[in-house]
Amino acid sequence: MQADVASALAEAANLLMVGMGVVFLFLTMLIGAVNLIAWVNRFFPEEVNSQGHTHSVAPKATQNSQQVSPKVVAAITAAVRQYRRNH
Questions:
Q1: DSSP 42-82
Q2: Whole-angstrom Cα distance, residue 17 to residue 9?
Q3: Residue 57 near residue 47 (C-beta atoms within 8 A)
Q4: Three-state DSSP class for 27?
Q5: What is the residue extent of each domain of the chain?
């Protein structure tokens, strides 16, 4: 009976080590892939939109802020003021 328990505990420890090793390897590879993508993105910061046009990240932010109409800005401002007044 004790040999069965010892054998089961050894198998459980072996399975634990293999499982933890696989998780550690996967997470290490995931962190490496994220760091690699961040490194590559520093050298190629351009984005491609759905229509295939290439543009840099900085003009996209300014372009979106210029396309918002003053009426939309006024509506958002009024909604925020009303929310803050009620809450």
A1: HH---EE-TTS-EE-HHHHHHHHHHHS-HHHHHHHHHHHHH
A2: 12
A3: yes
A4: helix
A5: 2-46+61-86
Name the one residue in this structure whose structure tokens are 């910061």: 45
pLDDT score, position 30? 98
The C-alpha atoms of residue 35 and residue 27 are separated, in whole angstroms, by 12
Place of tokens 């900085």: 58
Picking from 14, 33, 15, the residue whose alpha carbon sits closest to that of residue 25 is 33
Consecutive 10-residue runs of the chain (87 residues): their mean pLDDT? Answer: 90 97 98 94 74 58 68 94 92
Of 68, 42, 63, 41, the closest CA to residue 53 belongs to: 63
